[in-house]
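Hi all, long-time lurker, first post. I run a small reading group and we've been trying to get comfortable going from sequence to structure in the token notation. Rather than ask abstract questions, I figured I'd post a concrete chain and ask someone more experienced to write out its structure so we can walk through it together at our next meeting. Sequence below, copied exactly:
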Amino acid sequence: MAFAFILFFAFVCYGWGRLAGHIFYRGLRLPYAFHLALGLAVLNLIGGLLNSTQTAIPAALQFLLMAGACLATFFLAKAFRSSGGTHSFRGFCENGAWLAWLPDLVALVLAAFFATTLLPAGAFNIHDDFHTYLVRPTRMLATGTLGGNPFDTLGVDSLGTHSFYQAFFLLWRPILEINAFDAVFCFGTGALLISALARKLKLHPVLGLLAVLTFASINPQYVNISPIYAGSLLMVALFFASFIGGEALLTSGEKSNLRLWVPVGFITAALAGLKLTLALFAAAYFLVFAVLLCMAKRRGIRACQALLITTVSALAAIVPWLLVSTPALLKTHAIGSAHPASAVLESKYPSLSAHDTAQLFSSNNLFYGGNQLHYTLLGVALLCIGTVAFYRWCRSRSEESEIFPALVASAALSCAGIYALNADLFAINTAVRYSCPVLIGVLPTAALLSCRMFRVDESARLQAGAPPILARVPSIVITVIQVSVVLTFLPTSLVRLNRALQTGSLLSFPINRSFIEFNHATLNSEQAARLIQFQKNVAPGQIVFAWTALPFHFDFTRNPILTASEPGFINPWLHFPADLSAEELAEYLRSWGVRYVILEADGYSIKTIADLEPMLNVRYPVYRKLADYAIHTRRALLEMTRKQKIVARLDQLVMLDLGAPAIALESPHGQQANTLQPNP
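-- Answer (accepted) --
Happy to help. Here is the structure in token form:
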């Protein structure tokens, strides 16, 4: 059933993507995988509008699924009638054209393997996934929006696009199959799109196969269900759309259709909405590509017009997502500034940057798998490829071929720059992990574009009488780089495949039997029913602050629940007053309309004060601040359990009554806070 829904979701994305293709790419034949990625970009635009208007409810998502399926049926039937059906298939087999589709077969086999082994998932990250990534789509389906929780990091770590995509799977499938979107659908579609790009560039099938293997081999350092392959897929789609628009611009000039640049903006917006680190890459790529394109010979004005359309399209798709978190974030400064005592603790951490760039060239093994030097060599290889492409662009004499060095230089140099920037912002383990989606998306795509870029030079050398092996040196170097990548990551790839077989998970950090058993014990309907029954001690409509192990099991339709986690407290937009006393913290929560607090004092996935205290001595300020804020807050909440009225208990869960706020406040979900007393 999981595999069937993945195919159905692909069918839906194809429908929306084909509609966008019909509008913006009239007369152009586009690969199916690109239509899938374009469909995701269209859904991102619609998702932002639904979330900003609090209408992203199950009925709206069901409508999007049915509408996409109807569109796909219409366009596929139309394409079948126009192509001659079986006649085309016979020619496909007789002419040996199937060889060009060998990379697609490998991509589908790998995607099917992950679908078989990872669904249902054997384990999730009991911190990131349980406290953040499983909560967001659950809350959206219940309330119609991802926003409304000031204690979430939404708006800082991402805009919510990935959670919106995951909600389609959560709507029809159990929570244990939420991996189907990123680890299966996006992985498979990304590999298929790379194969399609090789055919579009008329490269040998072996080069396409090698690019697919490179895409699959790089260890993604899978830690949680955040967007890994979704980001890589949309990057490849961004390069594909940029190639189509740029080629038309440089070859057609004044006659080029500026509509081709609207999808580039939509895909950029979808990529930026997935995660902040991906947004940084999208901005860097777009800036470099815009400069190179505007400097094209005799095409500067037209290029500026095209890039203006791209910018407007991207903003049109991004702004609704920015509005999702705005209502809650607008309140944070005023409420936080009313508690100036927090300035003492906040002043200890003027900067959270790790400045770990010096670790880039170490040869240490990484906590999440692989060796630091291996990833850095990928960045160095892309820096070299980008530099050569930029030099090639500077000396280009053929306007038709200028698009390839511009694309390669923009993608490769931006990737290398973001890799270095991440090492300055984050601890090295985290920095590499955040760079993985970019490396996975850029390296195989840049390799294919580079092979096509060097084809003109190689043809000229062959005509001049140069030996074939010397004439093809650039392409051979690119091929050697990819083979080296596949072989370098082969041991890690085997570990990933074995872990998927043995545990049903791709988690890159060490897990044991108790970890898996805890996942199985908590991810079931019985545990959800127990927590919902516990929640019934609160009257419907009351706002609840919950810092628990399994917040995604709560009924968000019954109560506005402000779920908390350690990273949420250091959200810079929140201005959270972590060093308040128990009485002051209770008053702070009342200012958000909170009447009840649900606290889990201890448990398998709970970071107690004893767990957090060692983090106060690490050298990275972000972890020290996270621990400092969490320790102060947990102490204040534990003190509350001795002073406030306890409404109910369940295992390690305790429910506190803070008393009614002085006035009825509007809840962060846009509803009026209920001040009724709970049922006795």
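A couple of things your group might point at:
Residues 662-680 have pLDDT under 50 and may be disordered.
The CA atoms of residues 585 and 636 lie 7 Å apart.
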